[in-house]
Specification:
single chain; about 130 residues; alpha+beta; Aspartate Aminotransferase, domain 1; five-stranded antiparallel sheet; 3 helices
């Protein structure tokens, strides 16, 4: 079940304005790149997950947005499997990788590579929850 925009706004309301604006800009990029994706708030994990049935049943999703006090991560569930010619992805885990962004301007600068990573990520499927 998708989360409503009002639930997302309430979730990010406690963060500083630059973080809220960065989350909103990342949401725009994710939803443009993955127009069929379901947007789900996972309040316990303090993130927003993107995915749906076409990405695999019972799955955690394709990507996520995780706000912090001074930055926001856009993460990829199968990030270790993604091509990353610009070396944007961070992380050392078995599967997940992320890009740390600090402002809406960072998102604007990285929009194309983020959208490309999202598109490729969607073709890889998901990891099971």
């Amino acid at each position: 079940m998708s989360t409503t925009p009002n639930e997302i706004h309430a979730f990010v309301a406690e963060y500083p304005e630059v973080v809220r604006a960065t989350v909103e800009r990342l949401r725009d990029v994710v939803l443009a790149a993955l127009p069929q994706a379901e947007e789900r708030l996972q309040a316990g994990y303090r993130n927003i997950v993107y995915g749906s049935g076409q990405y695999g049943s019972g799955a955690m999703g394709v990507a996520y947005i995780a706000p912090f006090k001074d930055s926001v991560n856009i993460g990829f569930m199968r990030g270790a499997d993604l091509p990353d010619p610009r070396a944007l992805l961070e992380g050392t885990g078995k599967q997940m990788r992320h890009i740390k962004v600090r402002s809406p301007e960072d998102v604007d600068r990285l929009e194309r590579p983020i959208a490309s990573l999202l598109t490729v990520s969607a073709t890889l499927g998901t990891i099971e929850g």
